[in-house]
Design a protein that fits this description.
The chain is mainly α. It is about 50% helix and about 5% strand.
């Protein structure tokens, strides 16, 4: 039986364990500035003084600052907080972006695409009112920021989205006690821009893409992208869901295959998303499934590149094929690949530039067809919407049916 360690050794081991745990959590220690005889803590490279070293008040202040630092996602405390000075708009933006980049992530830990809109909304806000105290920012200032967005050529919907981002910043600032609640109350008085009454540029609503425009582009695409377009057209899934499709996420045990994306637009709300793939979709998808590499992505840029170049540049094609399954398209690169094919179709005279389409229009096409043939509730279920109001934005009403009824009624 091994000898027990001496008391001093055992205490040292326990101390080392506590130190390792503290380092793992990366919580800064209470420190003492010997020359000034002040306690302090260092957060993000900045020294925050806590009062006379060793006193109960300084230790209490240390615990409070660390607790607030952890509660805000390790956002560094604002400068001047100790003296009670108001935070500037620029500093509020920095702190909000620091928090948002950690909070708005998907299940894989990747930043949400919405972060780009928040960063874009913060630029005119910082340029005009960066040095202004956040507590002095009001409705007139918000309307001035909005007018800069309008003058830059942004459409009305985008302006409304970015103004909403600014309001969310101030709502967060109120929750963090960086601005008084009266600021948020005042900003809510600024209403969204109304169609035809704003001076902002208007955009055409998203329409279902005609099948002939889709067919005109398909022959200029490699087989991988052809399959992606056809599958999206048949199922109405989102571009993001299509791009991350893996064999392990598809249940092929039934006559209708069930695809459950690893993450999707509303996964953070615990909403389940199931894409149902019928016989026609199964015929398209089956050649791309990889049961031996179930974690690999089904549709990959490297495979599409190999399909484009396999008749020449063989060495480069083999290198692309060896990396197959490790990287996937994203909605932006998928759209870019389709736009490249549309330009090729235009050069060949198969498609006019005015008839270019976006992958999201395939989802609108699917929704409109399902609404016409099976009803609005069926369209809602297949699109994965929670409410009929959402589906109404995608599925257009059947004008031909309305016209036929009008003719019957005389």
């Amino acid at each position: 039986m091994p000898l027990a360690l001496p008391i001093s050794r055992r205490r040292g081991a326990a101390s080392n364990t506590r130190t390792a745990d503290r380092q793992k959590l990366k919580v800064p220690n209470y420190r003492v500035h010997k020359a000034k005889r002040l306690g302090y803590v260092r957060l993000d490279g900045r020294m925050i003084y806590l009062g006379r070293a060793g006193t109960a008040q300084s230790h209490e202040r240390y615990r409070r600052i660390i607790a607030e630092w952890l509660a805000t996602g390790r956002v560094p405390p604002r400068r001047g907080a100790d003296e009670g000075n108001g935070v500037s708009v620029s500093e509020m933006i920095d702190r909000y972006l620091h928090w948002a980049r950690r909070y708005y992530v998907d299940t894989a830990g990747r930043p949400s695409p919405g972060i780009g809109s928040v960063e874009a909304a913060s630029r005119p806000l910082r340029e005009l009112y960066g040095s202004t105290p956040a507590e002095e920012f009001g409705p007139l200032a918000l309307r001035a920021v909005r007018q800069v967005m309008i003058d830059s050529g942004l459409c009305r919907n985008v302006v409304n989205q970015r103004v909403a981002c600014v309001k969310r910043m101030f709502r967060w600032a109120v929750a963090e006690e960086l601005a008084p609640p009266s600021v948020l109350t005042a900003l809510t008085a600024v209403e969204s821009l109304r169609k035809g009454r704003s001076g902002a540029r208007e955009t055409a609503p998203v329409r279902p893409v005609p099948d002939e425009h889709v067919e005109a582009v398909l022959r200029f695409l490699p087989p991988t992208l052809q399959a992606m377009v056809r599958l999206q057209r048949l199922t109405g899934m989102r571009s993001g869901e299509l791009c991350i499709l893996r064999s392990c996420d598809v249940d092929t045990s039934g006559d209708v295959w069930l695809y459950r994306p690893a993450h999707h637009k509303t996964s953070y709300r615990d909403h389940e998303r199931v894409v149902r793939i019928g016989p026609s979709g199964q015929t398209i998808l089956r050649p791309f499934l990889r049961r031996e590499q179930s974690q690999a992505y089904v549709f990959t840029p490297s495979r599409a590149q190999w399909e484009r170049t396999r008749s020449f540049k063989k060495e480069r094609a083999r290198a692309a094929e060896s990396d197959d399954g490790k990287r996937c398209y994203n909605p932006r690169s998928y759209h870019r690949a389709l736009r490249y094919a549309m330009r090729a179709a235009s050069r060949a005279g198969a498609l006019d530039a005015a008839d270019y389409w976006h992958p999201h229009q395939l989802r609108h096409r699917h929704a409109t067809e399902i609404r016409r043939t099976k009803g609005l509730e069926a369209a809602r279920v297949l699109l994965g919407h929670r409410t009929l109001e959402q589906t109404l934005e995608y599925a257009e009403a059947d004008g031909e049916l309305a016209s036929s009824i009008a003719r019957e009624l005389g």
